[in-house]
Design goal:
Blueprint: E1 15-20, E2 24-30, E3 39-46, H1 61-79, E4 85-90, H2 92-96, H3 100-111, E5 116-117, H4 120-132, E6 140-145, E7 150-156, E8 159-166, H5 176-184, E9 196-200, H6 202-215, E10 226-227, H7 229-241, H8 257-271, E11 276-278, H9 283-293, H10 296-299, H11 306-316, H12 325-332, H13 348-357, H14 370-380, H15 388-403, H16 415-418, H17 421-441, E12 451-456, E13 459-465, H18 474-485, E14 490-496
Parallel strand pairs: 1-4, 4-5, 6-9, 9-11, 13-14
Antiparallel strand pairs: 1-2, 2-3, 6-7, 7-8, 10-11, 12-13
Helix pairs in contact: 1-3, 4-9, 5-8, 7-8, 11-13, 12-13, 13-15, 14-15, 15-17, 17-18
Length: 497
């Protein structure tokens, strides 16, 4: 049947994933198979393949036709890219349908490749590893709400311990009492009271969009957006009682949000979970993580911090002369312990290293715009291993790295809504430290070896190799004084052999 497979027999740094869901079909082409597979192309078409599948589990001809048209476009795009590895998966609608072959046979002919129909357990597993490989979750409930199914995974001590898949989604015609009965039968859900709910899928993201719109929340990134139980219930109630009040919900999701809200409200009521955390991950991330784990040359990356891997990948394409990022971290590291109590629950060392890796992200932009652009770029990076406070702290640190202290440009007001005053102060401290290190060295790696920072009591000691004394100018002296004064430290400069 498949005369010429779209899967290349040669190794490829690029991979394409087609995800055939009950509501939408998406094609994503990733730049690399490494630990940070940046998306080069991402297109989603709302085909509603699973619409009308209940109660007889029959795919409707009109919906099949729309889905096949979309796959025809995707197939043409993929044929334009030689040596591209392809993975194609289908989920609940195709899995449940008695007439699935009416869709699968022509779809596979169009794509010239077999489509993998995921079993319920496999779909839940991919959802779990897709999120867990990117985001630090100790204990909680992951819920992936699609058009035709609801995957639930209980995570304990960072490992999935229970999972199930229910044949109910936002395209379902099941009543609220039927949905409640289905969810209530899952015994292990009684263990989840007080834990956070991690919502995966377009319905949860649409809910997050509505929350940002209605509350004017200052950060637009949906992933890791945390909404309190009270605010979540309030938003769900508004959608359920006033279905026309869907401001902030993307147009393509408005038709299904009342049913999605009904399912989410039932889940909250039965499990008594706490905050809702929106996830930007999907089974596509799970497929990539699974692929990496099965390749010996990449498997070692699984144990590394995904944040630092992503930042290093970005830095590799943004450096000026040679990679200065690792040495920049070694340069600033003696200062990290100063004021770390100001960082509350934030992992200071981890975030400072990330800031060092991203410190040259705007070196080639117009100088007066670098601070603002750095702030905006970090807030928009598709990195899933950061909470909102962590992301905003790195953004603010790099804002100060470019802005300094003498600029008339004020720090973005959004910082005050998410970060404490002490966290903002520490971002200024580290940002000025990075600015000094990069200014002294001119961004050249070897020049950082001529300077060391030490802390003694309330004094920041700067040791400069005598042979490189010409690198230290009055401008640098002003920078180091401003850096130390941020946390009320004195400064002492000494020259060593």
């Amino acid at each position: 049947m498949f005369e010429q497979s779209l899967i290349s027999s040669n190794s490829s740094d690029h991979i394409g994933v087609i995800d055939i869901g009950s509501s939408s079909i998406r094609l994503v082409i990733f730049k690399t198979m490494g630990r940070f597979p940046f998306p080069l192309f991402n297109e989603r078409v709302t085909c509603r393949l699973g619409e009308g599948i209940e109660p007889d589990n029959i795919l409707q001809p009109a919906r099949i036709k729309t889905a096949l048209e979309t796959l025809g476009r995707f197939a043409y795009i993929l044929k334009s890219l030689p040596n591209l590895s392809i993975k194609i998966v289908a989920t609940a609608a195709t899995r449940r349908a008695h007439n699935a072959k009416d869709f699968l046979i022509p779809a596979q002919q169009i794509l010239n490749q077999k489509i993998q129909v995921l079993e319920q357990e496999e779909e839940a597993h991919l959802v779990a590893i897709g999120l867990l490989s990117n985001f630090n979750i100790s204990d909680g409930l992951i819920a992936d709400l699609g058009g035709g199914s609801l995957e639930l995974i209980y995570v304990k001590n960072k490992e999935p311990v229970n999972s199930t898949s229910l044949n109910v989604g936002h395209l379902s015609i099941k009543t609220q009492s039927e949905i409640t009965e289905m969810i209530s039968k899952i015994n292990w859900l009684s263990n989840l009271a007080g834990l956070d709910l991690y919502g995966v899928g377009g319905s949860f993201r649409a809910l997050g969009s509505a929350y940002i719109h209605k509350t004017r929340y200052p950060l637009g990134m949906l992933h890791a957006l945390t909404i309190s139980r009270m605010a979540t219930n309030s938003l769900l109630n508004k959608i359920l009682t006033m279905p026309s009040d869907l401001d902030g919900v993307p147009e393509g999701r408005r038709f299904s949000m009342p049913k999605a809200s009904e399912i989410i409200a039932c889940l909250l009521s039965i499990t008594k979970v706490n905050n809702l955390v929106i996830s930007g991950t999907s089974i596509r991330d799970g497929l990539i993580a699974k692929e990496i784990s099965e390749q010996p040359e990449l498997a070692h990356q699984i144990k590394k911090d995904p944040l630092h891997i992503a930042c290093a990948e970005i830095a590799a394409h943004r450096q000026r002369f040679s990679s200065i990022n690792d040495n920049l971290f070694k340069f600033i590291e003696p200062c990290i312990k100063i004021g770390t109590t100001n960082m509350a629950d934030l992992n200071t060392k981890r975030l400072v290293k990330a800031a060092c890796l991203l410190s040259e992200i705007c070196w080639d932009e117009e100088s007066s715009m670098r601070a603002s652009l750095a702030f905006e770029k970090i807030n928009a990076l598709p990195i899933y291993s950061l909470s909102h406070p962590e992301r905003l702290w790195i953004s603010l640190t790099l804002f100060h790295r470019y802005n300094g202290v003498n600029s008339t440009l004020e720090q973005p007001v959004s910082c005050a809504f998410i970060l404490t005053k002490k966290q903002q102060q520490y971002a200024l401290f580290i940002g000025l430290g990075l600015k000094f290190g990069l200014s002294f060295s001119a961004g050249i790696n070897q020049n950082l070896s001529f300077i060391k920072l030490k802390i003694k009591e309330k004094t920041l000691i700067v040791e400069i190799t005598k042979s490189a004394s010409q690198l230290f100018t009055s401008k640098n002296e002003k920078l180091i004084i401003s850096f130390a004064k941020t946390l009320s430290f004195n400064t002492k400069v000494s020259y060593v052999n």
